[in-house]
Structure formats: structure tokens, C-alpha cells
Amino acid sequence: MMSTRTRALLAVAVAALLAAPAALTQAAPQSASPQSATPQPVAPALPQHVKTAAEFVGDYKTPRLKDGKPDLQGFFTNATVSRMDRPNGYPLIINDEQAASLEGRAQFNVRLKTERSYVDPKLGAPEKGKALPGVGNYDVAYTDPGNAVINIKGELRSAYITFPENGRTPGMTEEGRKLRAAEGPARRGTGFDNPEERGNSERCIVIGTNGPPFANYLYNNNFQIVQTKDHFVIMSEMIHDTRIAKINGDFAAGAPDQYMGHSVAHWDGDTMVVETKGMRPGSGAFVSDNGKVVERFTRISDNQLLYEFEVNDPAVYTSVYRGQSSLTKLTDRTYEYACHEGNYGLQNILEGGRRNDRLGLAQTGGQDRGE
């Protein structure tokens, strides 16, 4: 169940959002830098014990479907201030004081405290001719990266990665660096002539929330899981990206490339195991054609799934790496992410290019452009 501490944190965040329903800046003001937070604690010298799924389950009685398999279905969130790599000076398993330090310096929480006046509905319309605050393209009322550290059945975590023991993504091999350079985010054209010259997220193709493995993003860190006798389906709220894994299926030879790769699944006791190969750059971990991501989903309480992953690609990384997080059940359903409805930004970029053509102005951008 959700701890008193977590409920209190959520209550503060919700209250702040209700008091701040309009536009803000994406970056925290320099005067409220997260670096002013409590000094980082020193990590323990000895490795910490990483609990297994069975240890988290304990004596919990897993709900089951008619076929006897665990019921993993529902709407879940992984919103958190914890990131993939462990922050310097922190252990993996942290106490309340260390959690408060990480949460206090998280950009989202800093913005909730410092930018509420930008969106106070009681202030009325802005004064004519007065400069507005630098709100950027996302305000804090419309973002939700998470306001608390990972909490797995009451155990607080500073990051996802559990192995290697230093809590960091392993370095790349020489071959991995070459593959990354060859398949990396090369920019085509000027960026103003064709929609294919823009990034995948601008074109509403894929952002990467659904991984694999799952990570954490600026907003829409929500998922729906559906299972049948033959398939395990994971849909992320962001761009409604959906992975469909055939249970006891095989990796199809010659299948067309998919951004989130090809997934198959099988049951390992009460844990659903999803194996994925062939992801394209920009979605989940960067892997070679022979690399593989293995995810494990285990019900550990009425409102949480334990999410575990392993990225194994000797061609790209100097070591495998593994991680754990929680998927916490939502009381609401996810919303349709109609990405292209009102996506006038992409249209305006291309219209601006055509205007330059009519005026005889050269397009700028190319490899160095930002998007």
C-alpha cells in the first residue's frame, strides 16, 4: 500500500498543480538551482542486497484470472524523480532523508515551488505591454515526470540500475561506439524542406516511453497492460505506442523492422517475461541486431508490479546491466494521446521554409540545427 510519506508528497504536488493551472517555463530559474539542495550523502562501502521478486512478493496472495495465471492487467505509472543511473554519492537503497534530498533538488519539484505565480488563476489577465515570464514550450502544470523517488513496496531507491554495482550504464565497446555513430541521430537536409527531415517525436512517430526498457520522461509516464491467453500487451500513454508480445512465440525471421523491436513472452512461474530484439535507435536501449532486452513483470501487491530488466549486448556494452522499478496502479484510465491533433508546429516549420523559398532566402540549420 502507499506509505503515509508518499501520500503526503502526492498531496503537496496535487495541491500545487491545482493552484497552478496555466503556463510556465520548462527550465527552473537560475535563482532556484537544484544544486542548492542538501549535500549528497556518502554511499556505503559494502554492496547492498537487491531483493528478488520472490522476496518482494513475500506472503502476498496474487490475484489470478480464470486460466490460473496472475492478473497483471491495469493502468500503471512509473513517474519518479529517480533516473536510470545512480546519482553520485548515493546508495541504491536510500532512507527518508536521502530521498528528501533527491526530491528537493528535482527540477519538477523546484518548479512547483518557484513558478506557481506564473499560473495563478486569481491574478487575471496579464498587464498590457508588460513582458511575460519566459515560459518556454512546456509549463509545469502540464508536465508530470514524478515528484518522489522509486518506492518498491516501501523500499526507496535512488535509481533504476541495480547492476553493475556502481549503478551506472556500462561503457560502450569500440564496436558499440562505431554502431552508435553510424546509426545515431544524423540530421537530413535543412530541416525545413520535408517532414522526414524532422525528428521522430516532432513527427509523432515514437518518443521512447515504452522502451524497452521503461525509463522516465517529462510527462505521460503511464501505461496500460492487457493480457490474454496468447498475448501480453503494453501500451504507453505517450503517442499510444504499443508493444504486443506473443506468449510462447518465436522471433520471426525476416520480419519488418519496428521502432520498439520484436517482442515475445513466456511465463516463469508467476512472472511474465518479455524478450525484445531489433529496436531502432530512439526507442529504448541502444542495441545491435543481436542485442536483447529482457523484462520481467511480477505482481507484488494490490497496487504495484515489480518491473525488472536486463540489457545484454556484448557487441555494444562492456557488461550487461540490470534494473528494477515499480509500476504503481492508477485509479484513473489513461487519455488518448492524439499527437497530431493541433500539431501546427511541424506544419509551421515547413510553411516557414516555403516562405523563405518565395523570398529567395537560404534555409539554415542542417546538422547543427536544434529540434
Please provide a written account of the structure.
This protein is of the alpha+beta class and 371 residues long. Mean pLDDT is 83; it is low at 1-40. It has a domain at 52-93 and 146-329. It is 17% helix and 20% strand. The chain has a 9-stranded mixed β-barrel with strand order 1-6-7-8-9-10-11-12-13. The protein has a 3-stranded antiparallel β-sheet with strand order 2-4-3.
Number of strands: 13
Structural class computed from helices and strand pairing: alpha+beta
Overall 3D form: globular
Main β-sheet description: 9 strands, mixed, barrel
What is the percentage of strand-forming residues? 15-25%
- Give the ordered list of helices and strands: HHEEHHEEEHEEEEEEEEH
| Helix residue percentage | 10-25%
Head-to-tail CA distance between termini? 41 Å
Instruction: Give, in spatial order, the strands making up the sheet with the most strands.
Output: 1-6-7-8-9-10-11-12-13
* Helical run tally: 6
Mean pLDDT: 83
Radius of gyration: 22 Å
Low-confidence stretches: 1-40
